Amino acid sequence: MRESVGIIATINKKKYEIEVAPNTTLLDVLRDQLGLTGTKRGCEIGECGACTVLIDGQAVNSCLVLAAQIDGHEIVTIEGLADGNTLHPLQESFLDHDAVHCGFCTPGMLMSAKALVDGDIDPSEEEIRIAISGNLCRCSGYQQIVDAVKEIPKK
Amino acid sequence: MTKHIPHESAELHVSGEALYVDDISASPDLLVGRVVYSPHARARIISFDLTEAKQVPGVAAILSARDIPGHNQMGPVVKDEPCLASEEVTFVGQAIFLIAAETDAQCRAAEKKIKISFEPLEPILTLDDAMARNNLLGPPRTMSRGDADSALQKSVHVIEGELRTGAAEHWYLETQSSLSIPGEGEEMMLYSSSQNPSETQALVAEVLGVQKKDVVVEVRRMGGGFGGKETQGNHVACWSALLAHATRRPVKIRLFRDDDMIMTGKRHRFLVRYKVGFDDNGKLEALKVELNSDAGAATDLSFAIMERAMLHCDNAYVVPHMHVVARVWKTNLPSNTAFRGFGGPQAIATMEHIIDRIARTLHRDPAEIRQKNFYGLTNNNVTHYGQRVEENRLHTMFEQLVKSSDYAERRRAIRAFNASNEFFKKGIALTPVKFGISFTTTFLNQAGALVNIYNDGTVLVNHGGTEMGQGLHTKIRQIAARELGVSLDRIRVNATNTSKVPNTSPTAASTGTDVNGMAVRNAIGTLKERIAESISSMFNEEKKSPTTNAVDIRFERDEIFDSKHPARRLAFADAMRMMVMRQVSLSATGYYRTPGIGWDKIKGHGTPFRYFAFGMAVSEVLVDVLTGAVTLLRTDILHDAGDSVNPAIDIGQIEGGYIQGVGWCTTEEIKWDAAGNLMTHSPDTYKIPTSKDIPLDFRVSLLKNATNPNAIHGSKTVAEPPLMLGISTWLAIKDAISAVTDHNVEPEFSLPATNEVVLLSIEKLKCHTATKASPHTIA
Ligand code: FES
Ligand code: FES
């Protein structure tokens, strides 16, 4: 097996040229190599959604993606959701609706929600429930999260 | 307080900046720790050889029980839990060796090279087996009122039965984690995900053979706890500290999800047997209950959990004659532990199940039977253990909820629906919860705080409670701001740290805000007295007359002033600068012990609780008779949070607690195989509720005009009680199933009611109807 693979990817609008081990996941590279610890490890088998990031606008579980696969792609993590110091409307809405309890699921939840609202500015409650159903939350009853996504403050 | 105040760390959470143990960047020296655990449920360790494993590149240390410098013990109450197994293993998942290496891959490579041989022994893996072999963990306990036996003989109706409730996994999103950093000499600093930092500190000191003064444990936040980190957060802390001690380097252990599920304890499984007597109107006359719990391999908190179960067998109802006997059994499974509700859910599910059966026996609406048996407002309001149910809100809440949920109308509609649908049945249930608030281990009802005011007018609050998502720090911050009369942005709540507030109790038993809020208030009271004293003399030094008295000094809206002469005032920040110039100490501790409680464990009598929390829910479900699939159609909850300190946080806790209860009652099924291996050790086999499982229509509200005289600022804790409202879903499912026989036959039912349980229950009912119908068919 090769020791490492060189990849070039855009992460949160910044261009990275990095060497990664061929068997490392995107999740591990984000957290351990790039220090982007906002993306969480919940199960590492693609079942909990805590590690959700966007790859070319699509929500994916970064624990299921090999880092080498992101070569040439554009990644957005929770750290890239806000615009500088201005929170993304979804982040505002999570604050307004108390959709954050322990917060461990929050980054992944926000990224799944972002992928949804980017594709459909006015999703129905049912669509929201389906869109975040791959993101487990053990603290809330999901309702506050669903409401937060439904009632994003209009800019 | 109606203003919306979000969680104190919410901004950090939505931006991904909030740090959990696994996110803390330690030095480049950091080692990864791994726990090697037993593959056998019960076996003798014959021999082992670590030589080859230690040679794997990158490995810094591999430890066995022999390498523990202090005591090989981490039992929280009873010392029956070795930190590392030495001679015998007693469950699959029990730690035997610890490895520290540069990377996780190296740890795993080393694990493969460990040589160990076992002599397997026959394990005990079920409650039934433990009971058959009389494998008790300790002596049985009883709690009695009146004479249940003779009352049962006189009752017109007597029914008996058995109920099994399942185990459940906490499934905190953040698995057990701890980072240990060795300091000078014996010093050890730990960043832990623990609900009980003081106990973590004590056990780490014990295994390292050092003293508590040498160990500091800090908890910024947990990614969920739910009781799972009340004692079992100590384990990873001890293990990481041992490795850090041995290598003199920082070591982090974060359990992989599957390992966490395999190694840690769950909610106790219960087997309950009961015999109940009641009259023609469904009034309870006598109840005998036998509670059996599966403790797993060690004591942990099993006896306290069983005690709470014994204290909640009544739930919300007067039972004139009651006899409870409780037995805690030992098996070869991970030691079961605290989980939101702490024995309450199993007992309350039993009582609600009993009421449901009474209603079916008498062909009455269960809600009516419930209301009839509620504790009274002025009489019939003493529990089986002698505590009076004060401030009883059951009746008010029942009236309000029946109305707001449109219960009667929906009951009629469901009857009509069921009459005209063969393959789908609907069911509805209303269940209450009455939950005692306080640790039943009385000395634990205490808390400490340390409040520092700085000369720029900002305030750092330290207290003994830990934040696990329940919003404790947010509430503490609000309480501190209110007490000091300053705006929230002046106040920060520090990470919980054993060097700031010592000898604290766990954040558990729903007491977090109640006791820590009071301790903070007391610390601030001391500070205000000192400040008022100095400020009044300062005013008086200006020779104003009449003079200012310290008692008239007020703290409001970021100002300090003389209420009798309101012109004499100072901005809070200016005043604090002056206080330092005037040599006034701006640091104070606060302490609180819950008053008015007293509990005789031996007699099983007294006032174990400061007050009771109340909640009530109506849930409606749709059951697919052909598949057993259940849809939660609508849930209405009315909950008593007193004068809520933060209504939005409380509503979130109620929704979350209810859904956790629904999980325990429906989809969450823990299974072990015949050798004691956990079969449901990952999220693809163990199903906690997702956003698709919540009620289609979910309505939660707080009881109005409900000041609680017994806790901080008139509030009431929320925490555990709403979990038990999930039982309404379980009984709604049973209601739907029993509609298959038009409520004439009692369905076979257990908890959780998985699709499989539902389907089998329906199939049995169908057979029953078929056999009953057959003679007529033949005739
Ligand atoms: S950590 Fe990737 S889905 Fe759970
Ligand atoms: S907020 Fe704790 S898991 Fe979602």
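^ FE2/S2 (inorganic) cluster complex. The two ends of chain B are 72 Å apart (CA to CA). Residues 398 and 616 of chain B are 7 Å apart (CA to CA).
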